[in-house]
Amino acid sequence: ISRLHSSWNKVERKVCQRNDELYEIILPNSNFRNLRKEVSQANPPCIPYVGLFMSDLTFATECNPTVVNGMINFLKCTYINDIINRLRLYQHTPYHFEAVPSNSGSSPTTTCPRRETLYEMSLQIEPKKPK
Q1: Statement: residue 112 has pLDDT above 60
Q2: How far is Cα 116 from Cα 22, in angstroms, rounded to an integer?
Q3: What does the DSSP assignment read for 45-101?
Q4: CA-based, 20 to 30 A from 13: which of 4, 35, 61, 82?
């Protein structure tokens, strides 16, 4: 999508601005600071990026000792528990969707074309410029 510069020029400015705002949220800068902020402010139900939780769990388990001065590091255990509980909160909050009549007849098993196919399609829409 990003390589389709001429096509992006035809998209409504408001849509492009919203796309830029969303892109800023998912930037990996500062350990996904913007995404963490958005997720922490979101009220469930929400579909969080599980990669954040996995990296937090990896950090908690790999970078903190399990035993300190011959005793179990309960601070580490508490930190791990908090991470898991935050993720569980999103998993156990039900979603209440209403059927959209225009989509109710579509197949739920529709698959997305492969990356190569999408690239070929993009070349048909906007061929590569010669160097």
Answers
A1: yes
A2: 25
A3: S----HHHHHHHHHHHHHSS-SEETTEE-HHHHHHHHHHHHHHHHHHHSPP-----T
A4: 35
